[in-house]
Amino acid sequence: MSLLVVGLGGCREPESPQQTTEKPVRTGPEASKTVFTPPSPLPAIGDDTSGNSNNQRSLPPPKAPDAETIASIAALVTEKPVGVGAPAYDRQVWEPLTATPQGQTLITSAEEALKQPIPELTRELWLCYERTGDRKAYQDAFSQRINRLADLALGEALEYQGRFLLAIEQNILAILNQGAWSVPAHGKDLEVFEGKRIVVDLAACQLAWSLATIDYWLADKLPQDLRARIKSEIERRVLDPYLSAVHDGRPMWWMTNPNNWMAVCVGAITGTALTLEEDPEVRAEFIACALDMLPRYIDGFSDDGISEEGINYWAFGFSHYLYASEAIRQTTKDAIDLLEDPKVFIISQSPRNLEIGDGVYAAFGDQPIHASANLFLSDFAAMRYGLPLSPSSHFDIISKGFRHPLSPQLYSLILSTFGANAPTVQYFTHTPEEEDNIALRSWFTSSEIFIFRPSDEDPDGLGLAIRVGNNGESHNHNDIGSFVVVRGGVPVLVDPGMERYTKKSFGSHRYESDMTNSFGHPVPLVANRMQKTGADAYGTVESTHMSKESDIMVIDLTHAYRSPGLVKLTRTVHYGRRTQKQDSFIEIRDQMQASKPVAFSTALVTLGEIKILSRNTVELSYKGASVFAQIDTGKQPFSFSVTPVTGFATKPSRGIKRLGIYLEEATENAFIQVRFTPDEPKIESASNES
């Protein structure tokens, strides 16, 4: 059987953090005398000599299931493996999907895939990560190779006429012949690329379940020797190393870290085994392992259901929790249902309450700056919990399934296409939470994320999200106190979010990037020092007050810094809603006390335009929405400086800008207050500026 492969691209140029300071804009009565040039920010004392890393907490190794547990689960499982949906020969299931416009579109996609060669995975592409830090060169070719197969397999399952089979077999064979099913960012050695050492990572686990799904759909069409090799390669590369790690007490790192990796890898491995393995006891053993490890993932969420990794990683990890839950429920004939857990219910619905307004979410940590929640997952869980759904919620429409940068998730159709008949969760009830007027605010006090919203009577009012927490979280940025301001569905002031990962994104160089250190975030500098790294850098909510008219929160930021002379630093948030007596506003007041005179500054971050209107008034505009900021420093002179926020892979052209607000003189006691309004404030006259 001949294979047609094609090479894709090459390595990108090495990436390094850039810090370009534009000519600062100075304000105040002494403007004509000097030009203020802000110094380059310094790390916290100690962080400049110690390695910074994105540390994660570790749990004890998982326990190998005993024979009694395996036997008890084996008594519950189906006689034969259960896969996603149904085999393609079951035309009662597939023909109605084929007849839909979506089904016809997928057949057209398969026809297009048929015209494309199989992307080549070369040694040179693999080495790009080691040589330049570029993860995408290899990963793009890797995912395109598997996406092509997924398109072909869906087309064949829908059409069932055999015209895509030869290309499917060739594409599968190319994947089976790959030295690695993992990607270089998760194990860069050439011996991995050559297949001499196996790495079980996100890519390999997702690929295994998609391959098992294709084998399940097309079992009567694929050659038996090819099917046997699919099974043996999945076992050799994924399933057997997984079980060996559990039994030997030498866990893979993600087995002891309750983050998205745990859910994705355990979930995908479990789904693969339940699709592929004929022996009921083998399937039971994989279920037993999942019942030990997946609750660890759930325990990693705060009590109010928030993932410290953010909503995108919530979607990646929790989706696989749901996929695995459905696979286990179906395999055990509804006897084991992972959704019978009050905390899982809270987690499933948490993204709805994280929205600032109009579909906008804060990009705290490693989140895209325009991150959005995958509410389909919340909708599916809500259906299973018996909650009312919107008319747009459907779980019986054929699609490509979710496509992740590392691999297509054909198995995601277990929810989106074949999930409509999933039963309501048994033995579960939930009670409404205490009234907190969710329309006005969502305060997640365990995870310390706070959302403030305008009233329904003020559709043009400002929305606010602010993060407290600590700097030792998974996918952490040093950004305690960071905030986002939204107007009319537009994030005018932002947290800069994540940048494309490189080999420096995790490890000792992580916080050299302004995208991850505190300089690139809207937080203060004390003695020109940034926030420190690690869990001992934290904020504390000292006091709160909430009412229909306004919310007030005082946050102690002192422990987020390791700056000479610092005694106390607080950030006070005053959120005012429009009433007959007041216009809407947000005030952010940073107050610093030191034992000796130190430099003090704070910052605003935006993707939009910055216009200095007067000595203390700035207009920030993005996508047609404007927010006005008035600065008050208690008569202490200050200056502005506009600086691009850059990083390892983020250039000035990305358009993220930092407006620094610097006190011009060192001081022992100072405050900088910024008052945001949706309407332009009255500008002081020129005579008042002199």
Short descriptors:
690 residues, alpha+beta, five-stranded antiparallel β-sheet, 16 helices, disordered N terminus
Task: Walk me through what this model shows.
With 690 residues, the chain is of the alpha+beta class. It has 16 helices and 23 strands. The protein has an eight-stranded antiparallel beta sheet with strand order 13-14-15-16-23-20-19-18, with no helix packed on it. Helix 1 crosses helix 11 (280-299), helix 3 packs across helix 5 (136-159) and helix 9 (224-248) packs across helix 10. It is elongated and about 80 Å long.
| Overall pLDDT confidence | 90
Low-confidence stretches: 1-8, 18-24, 26-35, 685-690
Question: What portion of residues is helical?
Answer: 25-40%
What fraction of the residues are assigned to beta strands by DSSP? 15-25%
Which class of secondary structure composition applies to the elements?
alpha+beta
Any idea what the radius of gyration is?
27 Å
N- to C-terminal distance:
83 Å
What spatial form do the alpha-carbon principal axes imply? elongated
Helix count equals: 16
Question: Can you count the beta strands?
Answer: 23
Major sheet summary line: 8 strands, antiparallel
Describe the strand arrangement of the main beta sheet, using strand numbers.
13-14-15-16-23-20-19-18
